[in-house]
Amino acid sequence: MTAATCNDVSLSWYEASARQRIDALVDAGSFCEFIGPELREISPHLAIFDLPEQFDDGIVVGRGRLDGKAVLLAAQEGRFMGGAFGEVHGAKLTGLLRAARALSQDVLILFDTGGVRLQEANAGELAIAEIMRAVIEARRAGVNVVGLIGGRAGCYGGGSLIAGTCSKVIISEQGRLSVSGPEVIETNRGIEEFDSRDRALVWRTMGGKHRFLIGGADAFVDDEALAFRQSAIVALKISPGCDVAVLAAEQARLERRLQRFGEVEDAVEIWQTLGIDQPTEIPARPTGAFLRAANNRESADDAR
Amino acid sequence: MSDWGMQKAALGERLAAGRQHARGKVVPIPDLPAFLKGVIRSGDRVCLEGDNQKQADMLASALANLDPRDVHDLHMVQSGVVLPSHLDIFEKGIARRLDFSYSGPQSARIARMLFGGKIELGAVHTYLELFARYFIDLTPNVALIAAVSADKDGNLYTGPNTEDTPTVVEATSYKNGLVVAQVTEIVDKVPRVDIPGDLVHFVVEAGRPFYVEPLFTRDPAAITETQILTAMLAIKGIYAPYGVRRLNHGIGFNTAAIELLLPTYGEKLGLKDKVCTHFALNPHPTMIPAIEAGWVEQIHCFGSEVGMEDYVAARSDVFFTGPDGSLRSNRAFCQTAGLYACDMFIGSTLQIDLEGHSSTVTTSRIAGFGGAPNMGSDPRGRRHPSEPWLKAGAEADPDTNAALRRGRKLVVQIGETFGDRNTPLFVERLDALDLAEELKLDLAPVMVYSDDVTHIVTEEGIANLLMCRSKDEREQAIRGVAGYTDIGRARDAKLIEQLRQRGVIQRPEDLGIDPLDADRNLLAARSIKDLMLASGGLYRPPSRFRNW
Amino acid sequence: MTLDDILAGLFPNGSSIETSGAMISGQAVLSGGGPIHVLGITQGQPLGVDEAIVLAGRLIEIVKSGNRAPILILVDSASQRMSKRDELLGLSEYLSHLAKTLLLAEAEGHHTIGLLYGGSAAGAFIATALATGTLVALPGAHPAVMDLPSMARVTKLPIDVLKAKAEATPVFAPGLDNMVRTGGIDVVWDAGAPLAPQLAAVLQRPQGQDDRSRLGAARGGRRKALEIADRVVALATASHQDARHG
Amino acid sequence: MEKLSFRLTAPRSAGGTRAQAIVGVVASGNLEVLLERSPPADTCTIDIATAAHGFGAVWDAVVRDFVTRRPAGGLRISINDGGARPDTVALRLAQGVRKIEEPER
C-alpha cells in the first residue's frame, strides 16, 4: 500500500485554524468544501445582536481523502464565537452526517466548540439533537464517525454530547471534553467546588489525559496535525456499529466507572486507583512516558 | 549641649516594648497586633517590604488592622505598592505620606486615592533612586520584611527572592531602626545566611510562604504575528549590527518574542555568541530555550520568578546561586548592573510623544516606574568602552574626536503601533502631563526621557533617533514608524523617504524581512508547556499558566 | 398538572410505576389495550451521572427484552448537574449514552415519545426529551437552553434589550412557544381534553425520519436549517458521483 | 456593524490562478479576508463589515497602501472584522494575496 502524500510541516493542532487542520489532516490537495465561504451562508441571527458574521459560520464541511480513502469532514473554528453551534453551523454538520449514511462514507468531526451559540440558542440546541440522531443513524448503517478533540475552545456543552455519540474519540492533552465549562460550575457551585482559574485543575478534571485514562477517549495523541492524521487513519479501520450489544457494553463500562471512582474527590485519586506510579506527575509527562504509564487505563474498546 | 545617643535610646525603648510580646526574638502570631502597636510610633517612616515580586503580606495585613487612634500619620517608604492592604493602610488613616517606585496591580486605586487626597505623595521614584534615599533622607524607623526562614537568632534565609531585603535592612538596622521579619518557618539552622541575625530584631513565623507575584511569566501562546515581526526587526536591525552582548529586557510580549526567536531566527542569522550573552534580567521562563541552546553565558537577577526555582538551581553555570543551591537575587545590585554594565535596554511602553518621551501613566492609572528608567537611561558616569556603546556614540556625534566622545547606551522602545483596544502607542501629548497638572506635580511621570531613547521599533520599522540631526527630523522619524495612528498618518512622506535613504528609518524590506514570514512556527516555544518540556521538567509554572 | 394527574389521565386502564428519587420507571396499559413502558425524570431535578445511568440501564433492558412496546419518557428536569464530580466522571458520556439508548430503542422499533410537562434545559433536555422520536409537551412546560438573566450576563446585554429582541425572533429565548416554532416540539397537547386519546393519536403515526428541521421551516422559527442540510447532502452526493466517474 | 466600501485603482493585478482564497477568522482583534477574482484587472474592490465603529479614515489609509504595495488588481475582497488593529488588517490582506497566488495542486 502506498502512503498518500500529506503536509508534513509541524503544525500545532491547538493553534491551527479549522481550515489549516483539514489541510494538514487529509491527503494533500484532496479537500473539496461544501457551501464554502464564497457562498456567504452566514448566520441570519447575529445581525440582531449587531455581532460580526463569518462567511462559513464557523464550520468547514466537505470531502477529502485520508490515506487514499474517501471521507467526509467537518471542522469547527473555535475562535469564531467559541466554535458554538448556531442554526447554519449545525445544519452543515447535520447534512454531512445524513450524506454519510446515504453514501456509506466515514466521517471525521474536528471538534472545537463551547457548545450552543446563545444568540441562537434554540436553533443550536435542536441542531445538536439532530446531529446526534444523524450520527447514530449513520453508525447503524455501518459508517464510522470519528471525533477529534484538541482545539482552543475544547469540546463543551452539546458538542461533548455529540462527541459521546462518535464511534471513536481521538484527543490530545490540550483537548478538553466536558458538558459544563469551568466558569459555569464555579458560578453555580462556588469557587470552593471549582476554581475556574486554576488551570491545572481544569485540565486534570476535563483534559485529554484524564479522559483517555478513564476511557472517555480511545486514542491519545501529541498536539500535532500529523499525529491526529495517523490516529484517524487507524480509527477508520474498525467499524463497531451501534447496536444493543455495543450500548450494553457501554452501560457496563460506565457502571463500572461509577463503582470504581464514584466516591473520589479529584482526578489524581482516580489515577492512583488505576495503579499509576506517581500519579501527581501525570500532567507533566510527555506523550511517550504518559502512554506507558497509561497501560492500566480504563479502555473503551468497542463500547461506545 | 546635644544629648547624643537619642536614636539608640529610642531603639532601646522600641526593643523593650517589643520584647513584652516576644519569646526571645520570636513574636507569636496572636501577639502581633499588640507587638506592632508597641514598636511603631505615629509619624514613623516605615518600610513595609513590598517589592516588585515578593510581599511581606502577613505584616501588611497586621499593620492595616491597627487602630488609627493608636498609630497614625505613618510615612511609608517602599518600592512596591502591590497588595490591597498597602492602600488600606492609607484608607484607614494609619499612614498619610507615600514614597514609592512601582504600583502595578494597584495602579488604578492609587490614582483614585491620590486624587481623593487620601495619600500625600512624596515622589514616584526609580528603584535605585528610592534605595539611595533610604541612606540619605528617607531612612526607615521600622522595616517590616519577608524571608523564607529564620533561626532563633534572627539569621534570615530569603531563598531565591532576596530582592530588596539587604538594602532595606542595611539602611534601617545600621541607623538605629527596628527590623521585623515575617518568615515561613523557624528552623534550627538556615540553609544560607542572607541577612545576619544581628540586624534583625524580631521574627514572626507565618506558617505559610509570603506572596509572590509571577510578574515575568509571558505565555508564548499569546504572542502575535505582529510581535514576532517586530522582534525580527529588533534582532536583525539592532542586536546584529551593534553586536549587543550585555543587555536588559523589559517584561512585555515583544521582548518575550525576541527571547523565543534567538534559538531559531537568531541562529539562522548566525548571531549565537555574538549577541545576548550576558543579561541583567529576572529568570524569564521565555529565556529557557535560548539558555538550553547555549546562547547565554551569565544572568544576574533582580528577583526570582515563580516556578523557575529548580531550573535556576540546576543552571548555576548561568545564574548566581548560593551554597544552598538556590538563586541569589538582589535588586539594588542588579539595577546598578543594568545601569552601568549593560549596553542596551529594550522594553515596551504605553505612550510615546513626538519628541520621543515615553510614559506608562494614563490618566486613570499610576503604575510607577520600577526599574525601567534606571536601565533605560544613558549613564553619564560610565567610562568603560564597548563596541555597541562606541558605535552608538559615533552615530550620535560623528564629528567629535573619538577619544573624547562619550559612547551611548542603546535605549530601545519596542511596541506595536496600536495596543489593547486599538489604543495608539503614539500621541501628540502624554497623559502624564495631564496627570501632573491635576495632581500639581513638579514633574510629569515620564518613564524614558526623549534624550535617552535611541531607537523606536514598531512593526512598520526602526527609527534610529541617534542619527537625527534636528528636532524636525526626529519628529518625522517617529511619525515614520507610527503606522496608521493619527501621528503616523500625518507624516511628511518625502522627508520620510529621505530618512529612509540615510538609514534613519529602516523598513522590513530594507532589512530583507518579509512580513509574511513572521509566523508563530518561528517561536522556539509556543506554549508554557513547551517551556516546561524545554527545561526538562525543571520549570514548574504556576497553575494559572498551565493548560495541562 | 401534577405527575399523578398526568399518569391518571394518560392511563385510565392503570399503570404500575415505581418512584426512586426523582426518577420513575414502570409499565402501563394503553387505552387501546397494549402495554407501554414509562420512565422519566421528575420534580425539576438535575440530570447527573447517577440518574443517567439508571435510566439508560432501564432502556437497554427494555430493548433487550424483545417486545417492541412504545416507550414514554416524562420530563420535568433542571439542566445537567453542574458539579466537579459529574464532570470528573465524564458526564458527557453518561448523557450521551442515555440519548443513544433512546435513539437505539427508536431505531429498534420502539415508538419513543417524550412528554415535557415541566422544565428542562441544556444537556438534560438533549439527553432525554430531544432524543425521542416524537416530543410533545403540556401547556406550562418551560424548556430552556439558558435563562434570560444568565444570557444577559454572557452576552453583556441588558435583560430588557434581550426581552425586546426575543419578541422579534423565537430563535434564542427560552420558552415552550419558541421551542414549538423552531420545530423541537411536535405538538402541545390540550390539557383540557383527555390525554389518553392524544397519546393514542401520536402512537398511530408511523415512525419516520427526523422531521424537526422541516417543522421549524414550516412554522417559520428555523428557516435555514433544513435547506442548508439538504444542500450539503446534495453536494456530497454529487461530488461522490464525480469522484467515482471522474 | 459598520459597512465600508472601496473601489480602488490597482497598479498591479493579482497573480496565480486560484479562484478564491480566505485567510483569518472573525474573532476579537482578528478578521477574515475573502479574496475572489473579479474584473477589471486594474481595479480592486474591498467591502468591509466591522464591529469597530468610526475608523473609516484608518481603513481608507490601510487599503490604499495595500493596493499600492501588493498586486491586488482584479480582486474582489470581502472582510468581516472583529475589531482588528490596522497592522493585523494589513498583514491579513498581504497573506490573502499571497494565498490566492499559490499554485493549485
Structural write-up:
The complex is a heterotetramer of chains A (304), B (548), C (246) and D (105). Chain A folds into two domains: 18-240, 2-enoyl-CoA Hydratase, Chain A, domain 1; 243-304, no CATH class. Helices cover 39% and strands 13% of the residues of chain A. Chain A has eleven helices and nine strands. Chain A is globular. In chain A, 64% of the residues are buried. Chain B is α/β, with parallel strands linked by helices. Chain B is built from 19 helices and 21 strands. Chain B has helices at 6-19, 32-39, 57-64, 84-91, 107-115, 127-134, 165-173, 225-242, 253-268, 288-292, 309-314, 331-340, 372-375, 387-396, 431-438, 471-479, 486-489, 493-501, 528-534, and strands at residues 26-27, 45-48, 54-55, 74-80, 95-102, 120-124, 142-150, 156-157, 178-186, 202-205, 211-212, 246-249, 278-280, 298-300, 344-347, 351-352, 358-359, 410-414, 455-458, 461-464, 505-506. In chain B, the strands form four sheets. In chain B, strands 1, 2, 4, 5, 6, 7, 8, 9 and 10 form a nine-stranded mixed sheet that branches. In chain B, strands 14-13-12-15-18-19-20-21 form an eight-stranded mixed sheet. In chain B, strand 4 (74-80), helix 4 (84-91) and strand 5 form a beta-alpha-beta unit. In chain B, helix 1 runs antiparallel to helix 2. The longest helix of chain B is centred in the middle third of the chain and has 18 residues, at 225-242. With 105 residues, chain D is of the alpha+beta class. Chain D is 29% helix and 32% strand. Chain D has helices at residues 56-69, 86-101; strands at 2-9, 20-23, 31-37, 43-50, 75-81. In chain D, strands 1-4-5-3-2 form a five-stranded mixed sheet, covered by helices on one side. Chain D starts with a strand and ends with a helix. The mean pLDDT of chain D is 96. Classes of the chains: A alpha/beta (304), B alpha/beta (548), C alpha/beta (246), D alpha+beta (105). Chains in contact: A-B, A-C, A-D, B-D. Chains A and C meet through helix 2, helix 3, helix 4, strand 8 and helix 5 of A and helix 2, helix 3, helix 4, helix 5 and helix 6 of C.
